Amino acid sequence: MTIPSLLSQQLLGALKQALGEQLPADFMPAVTPSQDLRFGDYQSNAAMMLAKQARCNPRALATQVVDLLGETEMATAEIAGPGFINFRIKPAYYAERMTALLSDERLGVALTDKPKTLVIDFSAPNVAKPMHVGHIRSTIIGDVLGRLARFLGHKVITDNHIGDWGTQFGMILWGWKNLLDKDELEKDPIEALLAVYKTVNAKCKEDESLLPVCKAELVKLQSGDEENLAIWKQCIAVTKTGLEKIYNQLGISFDYWLGESAYNDALAPLVDDLLAKGIARESEGAVCVFSDGFHKPQDDPFLVQKDGEWAPVPAIIRKADGGFLYATTDLATLDYRTQNFNADAIWYVVGAPQEKHFKQIFDIERMRGVTGDFRHVAFGSILGKDRRPFKTRSGDTVSLQDVIDEAVTRAAKVIEEKSSDMPAEEKALVAQQVGIGAIKFAELSQNRMSDYIFDWDKMLALTGDTAPYLQNSYVRVRSIFRKIEGAFQAPDTLTITEPAEIHLARLINRYGEVVPSTLDDCRPNLLAAYLYELAKAFHSFYEACPVLKSEGKMRETRLALCELTARVLKQGMGLFGINMPDRM
Ligand code: ARG
Predict the structure, then answer these.
(1) For the whole prediction, is pTM greater than 0.70?
(2) Cα(163) to centroid(ligand 1), Å
(3) 137 C-beta closer than 6 A to ligand 1
(4) Which of 122, 244, 493, 571 is deepest in the core (most CB within 10 A)?
């Protein structure tokens, strides 16, 4: 159990004694890390919250609780301010837990006691449209949520819901038949299809007669024309190959690739069912879902405020011409996941602009009586240094492949400067780990809802909250062990005394708290900030406390602190899909 949950239990016992019947039945006191370490390691405002309800003086209640708690093997409690209870953990207790961590592969991270079957829908680029830097966020965050959830014991299914059935195929089909450069297609299928799409798009603007021709190709595809279906299939196949190359470089994989087209046959029956149940109705020839009045207007995803009045914004699920929409496909997809995968949680890692779409989808599910942990894990945009959407010099969206290539090239320069004597093969591998790590960490260290500026120099810097800094910290720890040539044996007891040792021990013990809360809130930046703190604490410790020059119990303790720091850094970054080089 983590330290705050143990403290919370002890606190609950004392509160029960102090308040008796007045303690609400399911009350669980919150214990959180203190912002200011001068006041202790953890704090609780439970006495203040309860005093209000019990109509007693908060400080008096806190005093009583602190007396009841007394001094334990784990901590001492103190009162602060109007009734906060502060806990100071004893160094000996940290030391004791650390000896247990030395033989714990999970480094104190407990498995969840409520395992879910969780589908994570992420990346999901569109065929014949480039996977651009904006897809970075979904791809990296989604992958990390999957890794975290698996590590915590959930059953995770990752699904790449690619956009493989859009109107873009009208132009692509015509372009494929009339313009395609087969050599280019071999070389870079994603770019080749994009080029075709762009050219046809431009031609359509010049020549009005072309658009209907393209539309006719689309209609033929939709009605099952064999030639067009074969071309369409080939487009998907080459795109998948191209995408897989990128995902491989990133170390990311999917359990399924059920794109939009996988649900084509389910759309018509779904709309009929929603009509029959009275959840959807016809409006101006289209089939729509309107508000059922369940929510307050300000929380209702089917209403917007217009000129001081609430106006309907229905979800359209079938157009007047019979065509289906993005929303229809997402409803069918949700059905499939809940029925075939038995999913009780589905998380969509998709940009913030699709917020209304997902709110409507989840609300339609509520109307149908389908419940689950459905979440839109939204995120902001990536900006250039000019604070405008990140673009190339020529104004195009930046392709993900270009970002990867540049990151690795830049990382190679950093490695060259730092360790020019490293064998070439190792250099190349480390450049890959550092470059890709830098892109990932720059993403994961951000609050996902905020926009962030894509800044090469910052993300590749060897100082600050960057992957190279954390990788370099790991390398420094490992180099200590290289000097003693593996002669470290985990000791049975440790003695922690110095402030820098205590702080490092405190952070090592916190890892088991941070990992689950990172997943609870889908906020990788919590773990990122923690790992950065840990690395900084390690450096301060290493400056203040000689390791190899110390002796006896002190040396054993310090080596154990080094060992655990390295393990936590490696495992924590591993949960981010970032590899740690042994040297750099
Ligand atoms: N293809 C979509 C896009 O690029 C993202 C799909 C997200 N997943 C979903 N189930 N809607 O915007």
Answers:
(1) yes
(2) 7
(3) no
(4) 122
